[in-house]
Amino acid sequence: MNSAVQDHVLCGWRLRSEIDLPELPPWRGDERAPEIEFVLGEVPANFEAPVLKTPIAQVDAAGRIRFGIEGVCDYLVENGNRITMAPVLRPEAPDIRLFLLGAGLGLLCHQRGIVPLHAAAVEVDGKAVLLAGPSGVGKSTLAAAFLDRGHRVLSDDVAPLDWSGPEPLILPSLQRIRLWRDSAERAGWSIDTLEPCRDDLQKFSKPLDTAHADAPLQPSALIHVFRRDERNSGIRFDRLRGVEAVQAMRQQIYRWRSLVGLIGRGDALRRVSQAAPLIPLHFSLRRPMRFRHLEETVDAVINAVREAV
Amino acid sequence: MSSITWLASYPRSGNTWMRLILWTLRHGRAVDLELLGDFGRMAINRQLLDTTLECDSGLLRAEEIEALRPAMHEAIAALKPHPLVKVHDAWRRTRDGRPVHDPAITQSTIYLIRDPRDVAVSWANFRDESLDCAIAYLANPNAVIGGGGQTILSLAPQHIGSWSTNAASWIDDSGLSPLVIRYEDMLADPQRWIGILVDYLGWPAPPEIIDLAVEATRFDRLRKLESETGFAERPASTASFFRAGRAEGWREVLSAAQAARIERDHAAMMARFGYR
Known about the structure:
The complex is a heterodimer.
Chain A: H1 3-6, E1 8-10, E2 13-17, E3 36-40, E4 50-53, E5 57-60, E6 65-69, E7 73-78, E8 82-87, H2 94-112, E9 115-124, E10 127-132, H3 139-148, E11 153-155, E12 158-162, E13 169-170, E14 176-180, H4 181-186, E15 195-196, E16 203-207, E17 219-227, E18 236-239, H5 242-251, H6 256-263, H7 265-275, E19 281-287, H8 294-308
Parallel strand pairs in A: 2-3, 3-8, 10-17, 17-19
Antiparallel strand pairs in A: 1-2, 4-5, 5-6, 6-7, 7-8, 9-10, 9-11, 9-12, 12-13, 14-16, 15-16, 18-19
Helix pairs in contact in A: 3-8, 6-7
Chain B: E1 4-9, H1 15-27, H2 33-36, H3 46-53, H4 62-79, E2 84-87, E3 106-113, H5 116-127, H6 131-138, E4 144-145, E5 158-159, H7 163-173, E6 179-182, H8 183-188, H9 190-201, H10 207-216, H11 219-229, H12 256-265, H13 267-272
Helix pairs in contact in B: 1-10, 5-6
């Protein structure tokens, strides 16, 4: 295996992987050593003294995280730079990459001190607007609607906030958008040509190509997306400030309980309260979830951000 | 480990109404629809599922979620003191034989039952479907809510079964000996039945709090609240979550043939609970 060929770029890091990652672009940067490694190997079935244990995930006091999807793969995430995989499926199965580049990436971020937000990130006026919320609230569908309008996309699900440098930055993550069948059809995707994220799952992945923002951007706004009862017609924005903004952001930390397991509740809360003010604007957005309201939602987001700047 | 109270019923049988009553009893003040929030939500609510598992449940297949449900309920029982969990699923076992709603982590179980002729009318309205569709749905022992998989729903799939098998699964098969409350009895004499309920649950509830719960959850009040603030749990298919909230409304809606079909489909269970 020629490792130079195998190296990829992920969030700006040089990544070396023992499994193929067709969704990631090749590394074209300098000759630095890889910053992240994905390897095949053994993953302990259980940690001896986990500080967090759920039916899927475990965290131990040494800061290691294991998670497993039965029948798919077990993963061990260590040191912020290494994920070991013990696949049950063949290593090239898309299912393995799905959890590797989703949960795996988010957990690596936590170990690296980067704040992964459960948010899609789109470019508006040269900065990143984050559309945050739990699964099913419409993050990717909104990101696809921004894409239709010519906005570049940094991420459709997990947006890493790197606040270690002089300026806070949202890192570009995966060069794809994933949509459930109904949203993909609305967006006019030809589903037959796309790879399902997993067999038997009606969720499809589409490469972003040039529509992917390939460099980090400063964040301009964190928008918490909620569903609104249809009868309260219209779209409602509320500006969040101070403690309210911090509390809302804490709800959007991807894998919050794992972070608490890694560094303790006090430090996890401190991390959020220090990172939140680095994002200039915080809003809640309540909107009817029907597809016919998508266009006006995109307009409303752009207007809200521009007016507040 | 603290243990779960299951609030189980077939859909449209007063489960949310009962959550509002229990909220008022527990908090000692009149509930409104926005306060209800996560109180007594379903365990398969997507957000709760993701937090409990630390996983994107939307990326799991339906059968993987089903296999994880016993462990997930265990995790919920360990996380919160005495959680109240709403269920429309039938009581059942996973493919490897584990009870999904395990007696080992159960503190108490309430099963609400309602005349299937009224349930059919309410379900047709709720889903914006024909009465005949609703009647066939109530008779389907393999009925699953949210099993289509075309989109991500706010709830994971629920295996509810038919109206009769749902009731039998909880009342006869589960070994949980639920307190069974008829919706119609609750409507006719709420003071008495809330009294029975709090005795069963072991909740302290002085008479004035029971009176408050009755007043705060009258259907005319709930309808008014819903018209003012909306209700986050209302699906887009129905104009209002809270409808008439009365018994025997079916007599003005169902044809004789439609009523007869329901009576034939569910004869044994209807006779058992006095639905003539």
